[in-house]
Amino acid sequence: MSDNEGIRLQKVLAEAGVGSRRHCEQLIADGRVKVDGKVVAWFGSRVDPQTAVIQVDGKRVETRAEMRYYAVNKPRGVVSTMSDPQGRRSLADYVDVPERLFHVGRLDTDTEGLILLTNDGELSHRLTHPSYGVGKTYLAEVPGPIPRDLGRRLREGVTLDDGFAKADGFRVVETAGKRALVEVTLHEGRKHIVRRLLEEVGHPVRQLARTEFGPVRLGALKPGTMRALSSREIGELYAAVDL
Question: Which residue among the candidates 108, 110, 120, 161 is catalytic per the annotation?
Answer without folding.
Answer: 108
